[in-house]
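Quality-control log, excerpt.
Job 1 of 2 completed; input and output follow.
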Amino acid sequence: ATLLLATSLAACGGGSGFEPTPLPTPAAAPTPGPLWSDVPPLRDAAAQTGRMIGAAVFSSRLGTDAAYTGAASRHFNYLTAEWEMKWNPIQRTPGVYDFAGGDRIVEFAESREKRVKGHALIWHGATPEWVNALSPPELRIAFEDHIRTVAGHYRRRVYAWDVVNEAIDDSQPGLRSTVFSRGLGPDYVAEAFRLARRADPEAQL
């Protein structure tokens, strides 16, 4: 405000001896906070109250990004696959499964005594286009096969699963309208949980 006022008066030919108030010297930039390696592990703080503390991670950055890998190793004891365990990356082509990305996350966690949450067996936001084109009978076969195969692949290696992600409509009561609710009916949620339980009886759902 001081600078604007001084400029305005000078522009009006102020020869009255007005001297603008000098602007204050900018404060020194704050010292950067501690890096991930300079503070106690967050997992130790969580353990004091019997909790786990987690983060969603990308397999492509584990082992290739030193800071990312170091922070994941040091601070968290519960890792979730950001993308790699969803339907689209695992089964882009009908019947062709690719577990490489999810396996890297699980192997990383196991080698460091961390738990893994699988995310997610069913989610409309990561469904391959070929699934959207299936008839209801075909959709049921693909739905059941996908859950059995993926949950079975990670049996006893994944601590918990997000079985059905974002099934509830955000704007009105009831289920969200998705390929699954339209093609399989509202019972698809319960059926997904039953299939996941049979595929891995020990996982938290």
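Job 2 of 2 completed; input and output follow.
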Amino acid sequence: DILVAETNSPPRPKDGIVQRVMNYLMDKAGAGVPSANRITLLRDTDKDGRADTKTAFLTGLNSPYGMALIGDTLYVANTDALMAFPYKEGDTRISAAGRKIIDLPAQSPNQHWTRSMVASPDGLLYIGVGSNSNIGENGLERERNRAVVFEVNPRNGYKRVFASGLRNPVGLAFEPKSGALWGVVNERDMLGADLVPDYLTRIEFGAFYGWPYSYWGQNVDPRVRPQKPDMVRRAIRPDYALGSHVAALGVSFTTDGGFGGGFSEGAFVGEHGSWNRQDLAGYKVVWVPFSNGRPSGEPQDFLTGFIKGDHARGRPVGVTYDPVHKALIVADDVSNTIWRVAPDRR
């Protein structure tokens, strides 16, 4: 079974020149379609690698994005709340009402509305909440509990800020060898085509990664007011640059030897693609090799062909490695397709 979040941004305000410009840019980036607000079940009953059953598994959600299964409970990160639903393997629909665990920040306008989520081996949840602006231009009061990763105990609802200064931590995963939490982060705009690189980094407890005061460690962003040199001194440099404006949205590590060969240890990253560069960047899935729990080489193109001329035929979002069937599952939100990539075993 594969669960797919069919989602988009919540309704956006239309008043004000700044908001109208932001709406235009978001629509250009593919965010102009109303959210379906559901999770769809794809089931491959004859095990030929193609889904032959498609059902609306869970409906009535609010811009859902992150999902995590712990035991017999499915956790769903709506844009404004973490919800819990009873899960029974084999069912094709959840009809029970959800139980709210905690509220999540969703101030209007709710920019960076996705809420990535991953479960740790010991049953804690980690939820990424992006900033509500580019560089805090709407006032930092609006950024309270934003640009952070929360750690949540779903059993009692206790939450704390695990790490901060992450402009938009939109993909989270645990590296299997070290057990460390890693994430892909979308960095700030309007500094030109070649700044700032989106990145893949280990996310450490208590760490501050610079947003909005600095980028890529302690490079000060002079546009931010007020400046805070003390915060810049705290800023940690990320581990691995993916390229400017590639819009990395998903990350998934291989386990159990991956595909073997050059794809045995590392991470797949889904790059949604730039909307603000003349020369397009991203629009592909890349492979980042790891060794002993750390990146060990340059990113390699793994799945391409989503661009024809200057036109995007697809934009990868979520990526999930399936260790049972040795396959990579990729969600593409332009063609609204779920792709499956697997070695030819013939």
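Post-run check on job 2. The CA atoms of residues 164 and 208 lie 5 Å apart.
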